[in-house]
Amino acid sequence: MSRSxxxxxxxxxxxxxxxxxTPPPSDLNSLDPRVWAQTVERTAExxxxxxxxxxxxxxxxxxxxAYVMDENDFRARCRAWREAFGPDADVFYAGKAFLSRAVVRxxxxxGLNLDVCSGGELATALAAGMPPERIALHGNNKSMDEIxxxxxxxxGRIVVDSFQDLARVAHVARRLGRRQPVQIRVxxxxxxxxxxxxxxxxxxxxxxxxLAGGQxxxxxxxxxxxxxxxxxxxxSHIGSQIFDMAGFEVSARRVVGLLTxxxxxxxxxxxxxxxxxxxxxxxxxEDDPREPHEIAxxxxxxVTRECEAAGLAVPRLSVEPGRAIVGPTAFTLYExxxxxxxxxxxxxxxxxxxxxxxxxxxxxxxxxxxxxxxxASEAEPMLSRVVGKHCESGDIVVRDAFLPxxxxxxxxxxxxxxxxxxxxxxxxxxxxLRPPVIAVRDGEARTIVRRETEEDLLRLDVG
Length: 463
Ligand code: LLP
What we know:
- This protein folds into 2 domains: 41-70 and 328-460, Lyase, Ornithine Decarboxylase, Chain A, domain 1; 71-325, Alanine racemase (TIM Barrel, Alpha-Beta Barrel), CATH 3.20.20.
- It is α/β, with parallel strands linked by helices.
- The protein has helices spanning 55-62, 71-85, 101-109, 119-127, 144-153, 163-175, 215-224, 246-266, 292-310, 323-326, 360-364, 454-460, and strands at 41-42, 48-50, 53-54, 66-70, 89-94, 113-116, 135-137, 157-160, 180-187, 209-210, 229-235, 272-274, 316-319, 330-342, 346-351, 371-372, 381-387, 396-404, 412-416, 437-441, 444-449.
- The chain has 12 helices and 21 strands.
- Ligand LLP binds at residues 94, 96-97, 115, 138, 198, 237, 240-241, 276-279, 320-324, 360, 364, 420-421, 425.
């Protein structure tokens, strides 16, 4: 039976099964610019193109699934953040969102700094030539090896997260005869409005030293007493995928409160504050993220106001956006393998990837959008669930979305806003081969991270 003719499939206006779906757009072929990378468009032939490259050609040349990244969009977002914060602030891109040597070079060229949180991220940053003084090292349990490599390399900042971490950084710096600049990561006690797993500033979690109860103030005392450490500032990161600026404002106010206490107790004015990352992006048309200039203004105003009230010189501000820079710049290109209709429920559309290339839906109940990418279609909207090829029913890429009812095996689907925390959290579950990252710019496409091969898998298996 032809899919478009199926009478039992949910249609716009029907009472639909429980779910998170947003109503079908009036035109399934339309592309919401908030969700898609800047150069993505639907060409006259109906297929998507990005950076002047037709996705059908990309699929042919590079295979599917693949992450397709719009390099010009990435660079434009870097510039927007830099310009919004201006010369008196620093923008550290959070490498955990997605890191590769090409990305490090783009960041370097666009004047951004880089936040790393593991030896592997540090190695990538250094291998691609990021100047060490523009690197910050994070982590709640950095190994002695990671600390040693960072201090040896001369990273510009280590953010200490606990008393043990502080002692270890001091020990390494002393042994190497260095005076290492550090910031202290504090938990400001803010409940960020985001998923529990990615909120980080409430008190009952593993990161940072609490302002309440005086741990943070005690860490300041200890660092100030150590020759091998130079305390440059205070760091706070309240969580991720946040839209509401209120949490950042409370965080800024409390961090400035600590700077004031430090001045009163020690007679020292710390020159820096870092308010972390966490700014949300649009995954679906329902999301309405803030622009970098609005964020810069809101944060700059609150810090200035609080410092003036306390009689402090305004410190140098830094921020650490990861998702807000790379998230919207990429989409995942999949090929449809099977289309299975469950009468009166929804249609399951299986693609050639899944939770191994995007764990976010399973892990955080994240919402994504999806569009038919290889052609336009005028068929009826069909309530669909885009699922992967892994051996569990939680293997969902897009929980509820409308796709055209004439969808068929061989069609290409594109899931936008997968630049952040998808490739970087990808796994080899079921011995899946992690997809490549293809960078597209001005009509040219190149692999920046290649597709894994079965040889790659077998190379690690030495039994
Ligand atoms: N700075 C610090 C200290 C962080 O821990 C993070 C993220 C960032 C900056 C960057 O946050 P962003 O601007 O990207 O929100 N895997 C989760 C997100 C975990 C975020 C961890 N830390 C997800 O897929 O939503």
